[in-house]
From TrEMBL:
Metabolic or biological pathway: Carbohydrate degradation; pentose phosphate pathway; D-ribulose 5-phosphate from D-glucose 6-phosphate (oxidative stage): step 1/3
One GO term of the biological process aspect: glucose metabolic process
Name of the gene: zwf
Enzyme superclass (EC): oxidoreductase
Name of the molecule in the record: Glucose-6-phosphate 1-dehydrogenase
Taxonomic source organism: Litoreibacter roseus
Binding positions for substrate per the UniProt entry: H173, K177, E211, D230, K326
Glucose-6-phosphate dehydrogenase NAD-binding domain segment(s): 9-182
Phylogenetic classification of the source organism: Bacteria, Pseudomonadati, Pseudomonadota, Alphaproteobacteria, Rhodobacterales
Catalytic reaction annotation: D-glucose 6-phosphate + NADP(+) = 6-phospho-D-glucono-1,5-lactone + NADPH + H(+)
Glucose-6-phosphate dehydrogenase C-terminal domain residues: 184-475
Amino acid sequence: IPVDTFDLVIFGGTGDLARRKILPGLYRRFVAGQMPEDARIIGAARSDLDDAGFRDMVGDAIAEFMPGQSKTDKTVKQFLSRLHYTAIDARGEAGWSNLAKLVRKDVVSAFYFSVGPGLFGDLASRLQKHGIAQENARIVVEKPFGRDLASAKELNGALAASFEEHQIYRIDHYLGKETVQNLMAVRFANVLFEPLWNAQYIDHVQITVAETVGVGGRGGYYDKSGAMRDMVQNHLMQLLCLTAMEPPARFEPDAVRDEKLKVIRALDPVEADDIVRGQYVADENGPSYVEDAENQDSLTESYIAMKVKLSNWRWNGTPFYLRTGKRLKARMSEIVVHFKETPHSIFDEDAGSHANVLSIRLQPDEGIDLRVTIKEPGPGGMRLVDVPLDMTFADALGPEAEDIPDAYERLIMDVIRGNQTLFMRGDEVEAAWAWTDPIIAAWKARGDRPKPYEPGTTGPEDALMMMHREHRRWREIK
Ligand code: BG6
């Protein structure tokens, strides 16, 4: 479905995120026919480029990040002709009057701040001062949205001085992933799951975001963040919220975000025993974390596993286990709901006992799989066996599923449509930091040292022990 015509300004238009995600994403939407004829994309950054120079750079980025594409292709050229560029000084006045001339007043305008948070306030205020942002303009900001509650409040304040909350789109790209939205469809468009979606029937939930990459190349940023700030406070927290929230009255921005906020506010503080932090060591495939971070004394975690509890009626007694790490065995993100066993088994003990498991796989191989227990076929008497009710999207939906849009493409189109449902509200981000801050402060106070782990494994031994202690097991990372 085409969207209304627009001018999209990308501050930091020559930067890494723009080249890797935003511009290739827009190109895919263009190819899909979703970009109106006269929609324009305007790069704005410090570099002294002209339209031709910017088009050339974006052509190279498309060729680099989208296999099979070349900047001499007809479609790529057509896309590039929609691009414009203006050099701009975010902290000074240079370039702003030029931008004011470029941005049309009678179409949707969106401003993507693909820059460090230190520039958010400057960009927001100059957009207003130069009369560039009309009433309905939208701004898009990226993580990290602060590094603690105080800095997040400051950023929210700096944006609020120039824009209304309904104009501010805080991106968490995990919310743009296909399966994350499918989690909501599964929960709220079926009658089967919701009656069981509580502590009475669910034993525990596991949320895993495992990566094989290390932090090489972004060590400077990462070493000041660690897995807690880089992944848990935002991506894993959002997955937890969507899994744990009450049904919103409507699938609308504030209805959904109100419910997510309630989940964050119901989180208990996490005890030291319920957290395992890890740091990868070197192996034949790559350097250690401290070498990647260029900080031999670093106490930053590249892995974290934690048990999280919610104090509310729905979840009292059902823990959520979160884990994420770099240089692990496989790239795998999933949310897995482990149901309880039946209250009483009518079968002999040697039939075996089983529990239902619903896994929602974000990547790779997006899909949903429900393990149900049936009788093992054959004459061997009543023996129970788990079989999958499998809905791997590629199998179930055919070619349509092969063209699943990347998270960024979807989210940028939502900005143009003016739909904030999959974006974080200011109070949500602050509540997440309010929960995260004391955990990080406690590590600092104790001088907590992350446990070393071998790359290519599932993380530190202690994380396995943490689960054993609870008579549970982590899902395999594969
Ligand atoms: C980013 C983090 O937000 O998400 C990175 O800063 C991480 O450290 C990335 O690698 C993971 O995203 P995805 O979409 O590849 O799972």
